[in-house]
Design brief:
single chain, 234 residues, alpha/beta, 5-stranded mixed β-sheet, 9 helices, 39% helix
């Protein structure tokens, strides 16, 4: 994969009240900064130059398939942690006004129902879809934090990201990458409901964005052996 010339590498993760963003110059993780945004569209105000972001939200939905090929491959990669990859609703279902309606549409289109977790993310999926279709300054790709952590470590992290052991294992990886987590925490406002796992996920996706810029990233499914247009970057 050829190197991409860009200004910032950006990792983005959704939180309860909006979005957590960690960004830095290419591969210069010690200079990373963190920012909270209520709306994804607000990123356009701060990133006026060509930049690349990796976001933990599905980009690209199937119309009539129960599973995306990228999710299938990512689950294989994560093994025992495969449950962290959920199947998003089909394209028509994300426009539903209720969970029950979304389930019926998804069942009709794909032969499979959807979880409440998938449905609850519909608004953020739609927000991301609109951003991708309307934005020209920031190139946005889909990533998955657990896959990125596993790629760095060489194996999936078995411990849950919200538990003590899981928190410290992920913190150790980010420290080794030269991110200054205490500084990033201080840059974020106190009022929005931002979890430590939200910040960790955005931070490791910043690393993934840098890999993408440097031409070192890989995708699920493999871009050399697929006709799919939907990928997860790690």
């Amino acid at each position: 994969m050829a190197k991409i010339f860009t200004t910032y590498c950006i990792g983005i993760d959704g939180c309860k009240d909006g979005w957590v963003v960690v960004y830095c110059p290419v591969s210069n993780f010690s200079k990373a900064k963190a920012q909270y945004y209520k709306k994804l569209s607000q990123l356009e105000n701060d990133f006026s130059e060509p930049s690349i972001g990796v976001i933990d939200i599905p980009i690209g939905l199937e119309f009539d398939k129960p599973n995306r090929s990228c999710d299938i491959e990512a689950r294989k990669f994560l093994g025992k942690r495969s449950s962290t990859i959920f199947s998003p609703p089909c394209l028509d279902a994300i426009y539903s006004k209720s969970y029950e309606e979304a389930k019926k549409i998804n069942q009709m289109r794909t032969g499979k129902s959807i979880s409440k977790q998938s449905w609850f993310l519909s608004k953020k999926i739609l927000e991301t879809k609109h951003f991708v279709e309307s934005n020209t300054k920031l190139s946005l790709k889909e990533g998955h934090p657990e896959c990125s952590f596993a790629e760095y470590l060489g194996a999936p992290i078995i411990e849950n990201k919200k538990g003590m052991r899981g928190i410290f294992k992920r913190l150790d990886i980010l420290n080794k990458l030269n991110f200054n987590l205490p500084n990033l925490v201080e840059m974020l406002p106190k009022r929005p409901r931002i979890g430590i796992d939200d910040l960790f996920d955005a931070t490791i996706l910043c690393w993934t964005a840098s890999r993408l810029v440097n031409g070192n990233s890989k995708t699920f499914p493999n871009t050399d052996n697929t006709q799919s247009k939907i990928f997860i970057y790690v």
